[in-house]
Amino acid sequence: MAQLAQYHGNCHCGAFKFTLKTPELKEVYACNCSSCSKKGYLWTLPAKIEDFAVVNGDETATLSIYECGKRTSAHKFCPTCGTAVMVRMHSAENPIGINLRALSDLDLDSLPVLMNEAANLEPLYQVPEPLATGVVPEGMTVYHGSCHCGAIRYTLLSPHKIATATECNCSICSRNASLWIYPLTTTARFEGVDNLTEYTFASNLVYHGFCKICGVPIRARFVGDSDTGLDLRTMRMNLRTMNGLDLSGLEIKKVDGRATLPAYEV
Questions:
Q1: Are 92 and 14 in the same domain?
Q2: For residue 92, what pLDDT band results from cuts at 50, 70 and 90?
Q3: 130 in any annotated domain
């Protein structure tokens, strides 16, 4: 038997904390299905259910549940901060999967990612109907996006083709696997914002919004004044939520948000 290592994990706000015992993680698994792609999950499947232990909160009472497709599994996320924690399968073979992005003591950048091809499994994901855009000004490109369940939809008018994205390793962005662009707030139109839950912490200058039904992180908005250094005319939009956008063709610019003070503490 391989010696087990113990890892610690939590949602960002700390309402749900857990430990995971597993042989040392030397690779992680991604999935290109519609739900996993929008959330940027990185998976591992514990060999035994008892290798996963909750140390704060309750899986049923603390976490929200989202099911889709054939409803063979329940995706569980924190309704306060939006962190996707785990999935519980409705089968005995592999009862749970853990989203490794929720671990606090694992260097994901150092591990190879193996892809599980699931995008074409039946039933095929039905992309939510895009919002009507009306007349698109000359020289502008229109992009459509949504959360997974379609409760929140948006359009974005961009003066250029989207070719780059920012990936931040701070405590919240790394958990959400967000790929950011920074458009002007006036170029985006949202529908269903009453289904958007916002979460803020530390300086309370950035409000991270996610769908309260499916848990997909959509955007982040800025507050404050000009002294904060934030461009209040803009917002962050998560490119993982743009339907039909090929993320593999983007240039990814990495930002060391983890180094920004104050340091994150649960």
A1: yes
A2: low
A3: no
Mean pLDDT over 70-98 rounds to 90
Nearest by Cα to 247 from 108, 74, 103, 119: 119
Q: Is the dihedral of CA 160, 251, 83, 30 positive or negative?
A: positive
Range of the domain at 150: 141-259
Q: Sheet containing 188-191: give its strands across.
A: 141-146, 153-158, 188-191
Q: SS3 for 64?
A: strand
Q: Is the dihedral of CA 171, 162, 219, 241 positive or negative?
A: negative
pLDDT at position 94 over 70:
no
Decide which of 65, 83, 116 is a domain's last residue: 116
Residue 13 resides in a domain:
yes
| 38 DSSP assignment | H
H/E stretch holding 188 reads: strand 188-191
Tell me, yes or no, whether 153 and 101 share the same domain. Answer: no
Domain contains 54: yes
* Tokens at 16, concatenated: 């749900």
Which among 211, 185, 188, 186 has a CA at the least distance from the CA of 198? 211
